[in-house]
What does this fold into?
Amino acid sequence: MTETTTRKPIVGAPPATPSVSHMAPQMAPHTSPCSPHPAHVLVVTLGTAGDVFPFIAVGRALRQRGHRVTLLAAQHFEAAVLQAGLDFHALFSKDETDAMLSNPLLWHHIKGFSAAWLAQSAALQRLPDLVAALPAEAPCVLLVHPGAAPAAALARARRPGLRIVTAYLAPSNLRTCHDPLTMGYTPVPRWMPMWLRAALWRLAEATTVDPVVMPTLNRARGALGLAPLSRFWDHMMDTADASVALFPAWYGPTQPDWPRPFAHAGFQLYDPQAEAPLPEALQAFLAAGDAPIVFTPGTGYQHGTAYFAAALSAVKALGRRAIFLTPHRDQVPAQLPDSVLWQSFLPLRALLPHAAALVYHGGIGTLAEALRAGVPQLLVPCAHDQFDNAQRIHALGAGQILHMRSLRADTLRAALAGLLASGETRARCGELAARLAGEPSAAVVCELVEEQVRQSA
It folds into this structure.
C-alpha cells in the first residue's frame, strides 16, 4: 500500500551522506514503453561482502540490459562497485561500518539483529532523501535487501507510486512457521503444531526485535506523518510489490507464509577478483603438499582469536595443512608452522577447488561458493542466518555443524576427522555442484524489476 505524506525533520537524525561518488559510463538506456526517460534502478543493500556481492551481480545484469543502475551500500564497497561498472552511492561511511563490525553484540545469537539495525538505521533518512531528489519524470524502481525494506517504504511515502522489489539472500531472511525452523542455536521440533510455532515467533519478535527496532522506525515514520507500526517483521515482508529469492528452490522452497508474488533466481555469485591469479606464495603452498583445510569466520568477523587458536591446534593434531583466511592478522596466532598459511583475502572461486574442506561461519555468500566448488563444509554458526544455513547444508548431506559456542580444539578436531573421512559427503557435494551449474541466471530478477518499471510508468 502506498502512503503519502508531508515532510517534517527527524530530530537527531544523522547527517546525510554525500551524493553519488562516481558515475559509470552508461550503455544504451532502457526506457519504459509509457515514458521516454531511461529507467533508473536503485539497488540498496546492507551488511558485509556476502550481502553486497550478490547485488553487484544483479546490478551488472540489469546494466547489461540497458538500465541505469546505482548501487547503495557501505563506503567499503565503492571500489568493487565501480569496478563492476555501476554507479555508487555511499549509504554508510567507513567509520559507521567499522563501528558496527567491531561491536561484539553484532555476532550474538539473540542480539545480533538489533545491533545491526541500530548501526544501520541512518538509512531510514538517507534513502528517502536520495529518492526524493531524483527527477520525478524518470521511472525508478528500488531493488532492496530485506533489511532496507522499511527505508524503501519511507522513500515510497515521499515518492508515491515508487515500486519496490525485495531480494532475499537466504531463507531465514523470511519468517516462516514451516520446516526447517531454527531459532538461534535451537532447531524447532518437527512435531510442534503451527499455532505454537506462530506463538514462538510472536514471542521472539516481541521480546528481542520490536522493542529495539520499532521506536527508531516509528520516529522516522512519524516525521513523515505516517501511522506507527507494531510489528517489524510483518512490515518488512509486506512492503514490496514483488519478492525474489537469491537462492535456488531446492535450497529454500517457497513457503505458504512467504510474500506473494515470489520467485526464485538462484544464487547470484560475484567475486571482484575472480579472474585474478592466485598469489605466488599461495600457489607454492598448494603445490607443496596435500589439499589444505580452509578456515574463515567471515570478512566482517573481528573476534576470531579463539577460533583460529582452536583451528591451529586441531590441524596440528590431525596432521593436516591449513589456510587461515581473514583480513585481521592480529586474530591469527603470531607463530604459524610451515603447514599453515595466513592470507588476508582470496577469491573463493579460485581457492576452494584446491581445498580438502571449508570451515566457516555459515554466511550465505561463502556457502554458495562452497556449493559451487563441491567442497565438504563444516559450519560454525554464531548469529543471523548462519544457524538456518547450517541446518540446510547438513540436511542436504554437504557438511556438518559445530556451533561457535561449542568450538574448542578437541571438538573441532573430532568434527573435521569425521567430515574428512566421509566419502558420502564428498560425493554429495559433487552432485550439488553439478546441480548448481544449471541454476537460472539473474534474468529472473531483471524481469521482475522490468515489470515494476512498466507498472511505475
